[in-house]
Amino acid sequence: MNELVASTVSRAEVEDLFYHEADLLDSWRLDDWVELLTEDAAYYVPPNDKPDADARFTLFTIADDIVRLRERVIRLKDPNCHAEYPLSRTRRLIGNVRITGVEGDVIAAAANFIIHRYRHNDLNRVFVGHYRYKLRRQGGRLKIAERRAILDAEELGLLGSVSFIL
Amino acid sequence: MNYQPASHDFVVENPEQQTFFVNREVFVSDDVLERERSLIFDRCWIYVGHASEIKNPGDFKTRPVAGRPVIFCRDRDGVVHGLINCCRHRGALVCREREGNARQFYCMYHGWTYHPDGRLKSVPGEDAYGTAFDKSEMGLVAVPRLEQYRDFYFANFDRDAIDLETYLGHAKEYIDIVIDQSPSGKMQIISGTQEYDIRANWKLLVENSVDDYHLVTTHSTWLNYMRNSGVNVTPPKGELLPTRGFGRDLGNGHLTTDNPNYRGRPVAHWISVYGEDAKADIDALRNELVTRLGSARAARVADTNRNLCVFPNLVINDGSSVTVRHFYPIGPDRMHVTAWALGPVEETEAQRARRLHAFLTFYGPGGFATPDDVAALEAAQLGFAAWREVPWSDLSRGMGKASDQQLATDEGHLRVFWRKWNELMERRA
């Protein structure tokens, strides 16, 4: 890590953000979660067979701009979102948090995740992978400009749908 | 008068009472699945892949086809093959990668190697075999039949099957409409594969893919999203959907919906979701369609949607975007789904990005609609545990109407599938 990054942000601050985000997502406080995002944030889940791809040229599992991401939150809060009603219980463990670089005002960070997901009438499904974040500081607060959840599974297979936010 | 049948048949049709029932045993039974494997999947044309996926000599994709491991590949001379991925020596896969470009296929067990056209190339210690050993007979086994229609390749494990084009029948006309989006008549599978399991019987996805009756209830959150984005999705009074579409029988068990569009199409039908700056581009696409095809055909391509089911398990959804999706049973209560996006080869970067964005709005395991379809199918499968007590699925909607009057919200097109299914299942194995 270069000196500039070190002076801009600490790993502890990034970890705090990630752990806070994980708590908001696991407790389905999605409106609060949206507050962690910048006004131009994006959320990606690349396809399992092309984890490094670009959403402009490749069919992703999820590629939300902020407009669709806000709509996704509206959907997830609606009892007619049948894939998440009743809501899944999720528990995510975030680890191996690293600051991976800085470019202008963008801080790149990475982390590993294990998300256990339980649903009534369903199997326990375990989503394993890593995150790649782009963070920006706004008004003193570290905000999420982009989050990319890259799954390790070769295919979704028994993971089924990605109906909650990874 | 009893509404539901007293018989034990799988499919019970009663024109007088205008009823059509399917016995739910067909969704839970291992015996039924075994019969489906031999009477349907081993005798019908099963989708393998699209020519664009193996563009260059040596390109290959490995994938299951009707339960067999298959290498879908293009040899050094450009000829497309469907090779069974099984070493002639002791049976191991000779290609264990998902995709790539191969000079040869190499069995890592004992080192037999095969040319990309399947011919056996070399055998370590060949002198240990007797005089009858003939390398020219020992190439990889090809699927018994491999044929294509406009770059869509299908395999048939029945050597005596009718040819693919005859089999496809009127489905070809609907495939043609999809392909007419492309100025050159060339579509391509876009990179990125969606592969997911649904814990439900595979036939439920046939029904669900073409059933417009469920749209308003199952997909109300998607309709909300459209509404929030400024798209008019309010049905006229007395209608279930924003536009009145039809369900069509295409012969040989193939079927489609045929709907006036309201949901936007990346080919030449703008909606507010695409943004103001996309308007001029969409107008240009429309002009190209009109110039090339004439205004009537252009309107057919741009202003109508279709969810096409090629019997038994290929679905092409030409709606908010184009999906190519097929599925295969892993058990009576589980299927594996594979889906891709399809687009014209000449699309610009902006057009391609718009198509992919539109795809994800509705379709796929992270879309705003497909996960709810999956939830509905899985809920049905759970309900079927009571198939003995609650045996009949009701597909009677529209039974009293002529075949050309079947709405997409009726079940006439679903009955097309079930009649073909029943016909094939009643044959002797």
Give the SSE map.
The complex is a heterodimer of chains A (166) and B (429).
Chain A: H1 3-8, H2 11-26, H3 30-34, E1 37-45, E2 62-64, H4 66-77, E3 89-103, E4 106-118, E5 125-138, E6 141-151
Parallel strand pairs in A: 1-6
Antiparallel strand pairs in A: 1-2, 3-4, 4-5, 5-6
Chain B: E1 11-14, E2 19-23, H1 30-41, E3 46-50, E4 59-65, E5 68-74, E6 80-84, E7 99-101, E8 105-106, E9 113-114, E10 120-122, E11 145-149, E12 152-156, H2 164-168, H3 171-179, E13 187-189, E14 194-198, H4 202-210, H5 215-218, H6 220-228, E15 246-251, E16 254-260, H7 279-293, H8 295-303, E17 304-310, E18 314-318, E19 322-331, E20 334-344, H9 349-362, H10 370-383, E21 392-394, H11 412-425
Antiparallel strand pairs in B: 1-2, 2-21, 3-12, 4-5, 4-7, 5-6, 8-9, 9-10, 11-12, 13-20, 14-20, 15-16, 16-17, 17-18, 18-19, 19-20
Helix pairs in contact in B: 7-8
Number of helices of chain A: 4
Beta-strand content estimate of chain B: 25-35%
- Summarize the helix and strand pattern of chain A as letters: HHHEEHEEEE
Across the major sheet of chain A, the strand order is 2-1-6-5-4-3
Q: How many separate domains make up the residues of chain B?
A: 2
Overview features:
heterodimer, A: 166 residues, alpha+beta, 6-stranded mixed sheet, 4 helices, 23% helix, B: 429 residues, Naphthalene 1,2-dioxygenase Alpha Subunit, Chain A, domain 1, 2 domains, 4-stranded antiparallel sheet, 26% strand
